[in-house]
Amino acid sequence: xxxxxxxxxxxxxxxxxxxxxxxxxxxxxxxxxxxxxxxxxxxxxxxxxxxxxxxxxxxxxxxxxxxxxxxxxxxxxxxxxxxxxxxxxxxxxxxxxxxxxxxxxxxxxxxxxxxxxxxxxxxxxxxxxxxxxxxxxxxxxxxxxxxxxxxxxxxxxxxxxxxxxxxxxxxxxxxxxxxxxxxxxxxxxxxxxxxxxxxxxxxxxxxxxxxxxxxxxxxxxxxxxxxxxxxxxxxxxxxxxxxxxxxxxxxxxxxxxxxxxxxxxxxxxxxxxxxxxxxxxxxxxx
Length: 286
Hints:
The protein is an alpha/beta fold. Helices cover 42% and strands 12% of the residues. The chain has helices at residues 13-22, 36-39, 52-58, 76-79, 82-94, 108-112, 117-120, 136-159, 195-200, 205-228, 258-275; strands at 9-10, 28-34, 64-68, 101-105, 166-169, 181-183, 188-190, 235-238. The chain is globular.
């Protein structure tokens, strides 16, 4: 397994086990499950660090080894059900004494996904308040299901006896636009995610940003309620909605540039450093 020497991230448990033994006590062991904010752009493209996880993997403070489970487009409910849920049970059980941090990114696709965003929006009929453009009963059910998925994640960890902290984030507030993803100089294009659904409901552009702000701020509040729950331990939310992102930090409608994601990753890394064991301080890594 010497070919793994120097690697910072892997995608299978066997390689992760080797890295843990090789770097025991010298690098943080991280398991990362998530969506495109951990995996963007598509994995067949190469380039500079282009998502939160790329920046964390490349960081030297702290230096880490990471088991990457992320997949673009995943919803929180998908990651906490079926085979993905079984995989988390297996990983927590196998590495319960070795995982230092679990990073989780999920919930955004549950709200702005192709089968979710249209379902949550009211057709425009003269509303002046963005909140009135949201089908509240449906959104409350969706928000509750996301929160329960996160609580299931905590329960899976606890049931396996793993003590690692869980660290997650709240995304950022995008401005709905027609700006979709463009790769390979325009040879590959993807449409935008939010605006087309709002336009299809005839919702004026002046209300659309307020709608997405309301939806994601409510999502962030749901995560904060879990963090504040006295029955929940070692669950940490990085409020990335408060970061000073600017227009140039967005590469498309809902994803950031490398520089934009570096700002988010810096906030997550700050939390990781606050939770890292003293034995894995910068002076102890190799």
